[in-house]
Amino acid sequence: MLGSGRHDLVVTTSRPRGGLFAASTPCDEELVLVAVPHGAALVDPAHRLRAAAHW
Q: Which residue in 11, 27, 33, 41 has the most C-beta neighbors within 10 A?
């Protein structure tokens, strides 16, 4: 949608490929995937993600 002109700005977790768009990293940030237990089992069936009871 950015390429078609429908949006002026996009926040994304990956840098766009090619030279069509200008990109800058405003900060380095840790991304955290949060899910209910049954949802986490669907995303991570091998249970490799760290579980936490609370923050």
A: 41
